Amino acid sequence: MTIAVAPQRPAPGPTRAYHFPAFERLTLDNGLALVVAPVTKLPVVTILALVDAGAAADPTGREGVARLTAQTLAEGTERRDGAQLADQFERLGTALDTSADWDSTVVRVTVTSDRLAEAMPLMAEVLRSPSFPEREVERLKQERLAELLQQQAEPRGLADDMFDRFTYVSSSRYALPDGGIEATVAALTRSTVDEFYRARYAPGATTLIIVGDVTPNVARSMAAESFGTWSGSVAQRALVSDQPARIARTVHVVGKADAPQSELRVGHVGLPRLHPEYFAVVVMNAILGGLFSSRINLNLREAHAYTYGAFSSFDWRRAAGPFSVATAVRSDVTDAAVREILLEIDRMRAEEVTEAELTLATSYLDGVFPIRFESTTAIASALSSLVTYGLPNDYFDRYRASIRSVTASQVLEAARAHVRPEQLQIVAVGDPALVRGPLEQLALGPMHVYDAEGHPAD
Amino acid sequence: MQVTRMQLPIDTFRLPNGLFVTLSEDHTAPLVAVNLWYHVGSANERAGRTGFAHLFEHMLFQGSANVAANEHFELVQRAGGTLNGSTWLDRTNYFETVPSNQLALALWLEADRMGRLLPAMTQQKLDTQRDVVKNERRWSVDNQPYGTWWEKLPALAFPSDHPFHHSLIGSMEDLSEASLEDVAQFFATYYTPDNAVLSIAGDFDPAEARRLVEDYYGPIPRGAGRPQLPVMDVPPTFGEWRREVVSDAVMLPRLYLAFRSPVFGSDAYYAASVAGAILGMRRGSRLHRALVRERQIAADATAFTFDLPKGSDLLVVDVTARPGVDADTLEREVAREIDTLHSGGVTDSEVERALALIETDFVTSMQAAGDRADKLSMFATYFGDPRLVNEQVARYRRVTTRDVNAFVQDRLGSDNRVSLLYIPRESGMEATDVADLEATSV
User: Fold this and answer.
1) Could you tell me which of B89, B94, B86, B91 has the C-alpha nearest to residue B117?
2) In angstroms, rounded to a whole number, what is the distance separating the alpha carbons of residues B197 and B386?
3) CATH fold of A250-450
4) Shortest CB distance from A41 goes to which of B28, B82, B108?
5) N or C: which terminus of chain B carries fewer CB neighbours within 10 A?
6) pTM here?
7) Which residue on chain B is closest to A147 by alpha carbon?
8) What is the ipTM of this complex?
9) pLDDT tens, residue by residue, B257-269
10) In this complex, is the C-beta atom of A18 within 8 Å of any C-beta atom belonging to chain B?
11) In angstroms, what separates the C-alpha of A71 from chain B's closest C-alpha?
């Protein structure tokens, strides 16, 4: 079966140039910003409305209102009820996706270009005159409560939420999930949703991003026609606190009896998106745990077979989102996996990465750049981050050179400055009978044990 | 502008060793996708080796004669590419999307493991990947609410001697038994050029691509032919409503209700797919409208098809209860919706809505080169003709309300159902096992 002579491993051919799609930016008289990127490969267009109304803007005690408001936008307008609205979009072959992340609310459709002229006014109707029917607000609120209930049995989402809660000071919006918790969601009503809408949705707080098979002229006139007479303004957005809950390294065990695996989250408060060392941190994280061939994944998965996969990430937001290592490991190696994660973090800070590791990360991030933007939705979402974080218009043109310019010493500096072993919050969602003792033996710091709802269990 | 203008350019050729190659050019971005389908999946596993096809997929990333363990991943990522593999009931695929100047590397890597895998296989690598896969099983099945649906539903829907009956991820016991000899045998039997389709989509020069394929794959010898699978055919309906109640660590009841439906690619499949979209695609679908929006019995409701091209396809309805709604109510109310559809049929307007959604989904799914290459491989593997990808929109458009109603009438009755009803373990309801999983009638 085996063949004696194999062809030589090939070298790459000459590189072909790639340019991120050209786009136009302008502002309508009412303050609505417009970004248009013509992409004509296929007859499809994505319209994405980006509203400066993320979960970070949730008022205290009303955590979850940004998401509930975004969801309820699609559930009725002054002219149509929710069922009619869904039907209208679906007859155009699309559905309205509405969501709120930490920094923005996103309302998005992708249609074949022959239906763009019908989709645009419908989208405007949703943004400009939502009716927030009481019945639908209540239903979506109940659906969020159902999701929270489900999560008590779903270890991944539970681990994410618990990690945030133990990492951020309780007065920080980031300490609670973006969709809110049972107590805050239960308190939401039609009027809190309507108030949030009035406070945060306005043309001056909205950017309409149009990507696909459309000319800038057509896109501009369609947008002006549907959104040009929208009026109103919003107050300045308050900054969200990103203070840590505690400085000392602490172990948190969240009980899930009989769990065959432990979901681990190990990390601390990270960095805001607009950070001068952004590119060095991105490359550092790729080497530590961002790639399949990263140190953490090769150690935990390929060398030790503790897990199906282990990754690290910086969650980039306006204020400092979390840095964390996430994995699910066999229960009986929970302590060993934590020890290996800490060793890899220490190693990252102890000495410079090798040339091979550095170039793997930089050539991957550089080379994969065009592959990230194959669809209109992917391009629209890249343009959203440009708008949300106020990145320069040539950001994507310079991205690849910025990545390639990162050096091993910058990576080391980034690791030493921004990954702090003594401040790590170590969260294990698993079977306390199996993981508690061994984790205690590691003597990493104080240990707290909780039930699946996060109440102290001892 | 009309969506109908969307036709992929497709070229094909076959090497003397049987490897079937499809090419589809698109020069809008400097990237290219390489996609290999091997016509082998969990259906081809022998008794006592459930999960082996998938474990074997993991072994393909452990190196080959000229590639070190995990180097495949590293080389592709260093080249600026993305990659992975996946295992399904009847096929296994491996794919890379790379900058177009790295096409040769992707083709060479796939050829090295197609032609020269075994010299790199060791007991230690097998032991490690076995443990990785066991962790994948814990992660995706055992420690995930409702995670077992995925092996319980096919087990309930196909007779015990049917190739689709057993678990794709495999049992812990069978994974423990897998040996290096199994690896060698599976490789020799199924990982041969005549049992594979290679697709290349994106920015490449066709003459150069052909030369590379001939150089790299031409010398790999043809296989001895894959063993025949047992008969896949099953009766068009279950002949009964077969129920299994699963008591599990879940917080809310959930119902999986499946119907035997026409195999993927048949004319009747397209009507079934439209019926599925009417039932459970997006918020305007019947189940969402009735159960989630109006009656508020369910937190979520969807429907989908497995897209199996042999034996029988399955149309599956998946509905989760709202808190406070018990499992019996959930099952009764879902059944009532299905019965209403079965007796009353669908309207023209519902068919139009479904077709519009399906068409947009299809067009948007053609944007990424990797997705195009995968579809080409699929149609070539299943039906010997990648050009079928260009007929999909037209085939959907030919579906009439009458066709959908014929499907609904034939297949959505209470004589063609299997169901898995998950109930929270603490609720005190006793789980009852289905005594006999075999098709007992028809």
Assistant:
1) B94
2) 10
3) Cytochrome Bc1 Complex; Chain A, domain 1 (3.30.830)
4) B28
5) C
6) 0.95
7) B299
8) 0.95
9) 999 999 999 999 9
10) yes
11) 12
